[in-house]
Design brief:
Layout: E1 2-6, H1 8-11, H2 21-29, E2 32-37, H3 39-53, H4 60-71, E3 76-78, H5 84-94, H6 98-109, E4 113-116, H7 119-127, E5 134-136
Parallel strand pairs: 1-2, 1-4, 2-3, 4-5
Helix pairs in contact: 3-4, 5-6
């Protein structure tokens, strides 16, 4: 079973129809072991509530059901405090949001790959020679 870091930008696509949602759903059937920093759940909850309040794409029941599903998805959680120092260093080096860099720090620590839909982060990681730790959701067929 292959270990991968799951970015919140991917997990949200399990519940909200967006570009590459089909690829995100394929991950659920793949032989992958998902790891994520503990902040994944906060980010997913925030995105689901935003989809409900601002875009009316989800009902309150959809939000509740989706939260229950993501909690039962078998994602191994790593405390963000263990990743904080490296995430800050990566954020400073990339000029990117620190919350996104927790996922990259985790992939680096475990010599794994982070699956993300954040193309801006992928490009910044490439320029900083961290590209081996990141794969675009659209290219996930390369690892499953």
């Amino acid at each position: 079973m292959k270990l991968v870091v799951l970015d919140a930008s991917v997990a949200i696509k399990w519940y909200v129809r967006e570009d590459n949602s089909d690829e995100a759903l394929e991950l659920l059937d793949a032989k992958l072991l998902f790891f994520a920093p503990d902040l994944l759940f906060v980010e997913v909850a925030g995105a689901l509530i935003r989809q409900h309040r601002e875009y009316h794409q989800l009902t309150e029941d959809d939000v509740r059901r989706s939260i229950g599903d993501v909690l039962r998805a078998g994602i191994e959680v790593i405390p963000s405090r263990t990743l904080l120092s490296r995430a800050v260093e990566i954020a400073l080096a990339l000029g990117h949001l620190v919350r996104d860099c927790f996922y990259l720090a985790l992939a680096e620590r475990w010599e794994s790959v982070m699956i993300t839909a954040d193309l801006q982060l992928i490009e910044k990681a490439r320029r900083a020679n961290l590209e081996k730790y990141v794969i675009a959701l659209a290219n996930v067929g390369e690892i499953i």
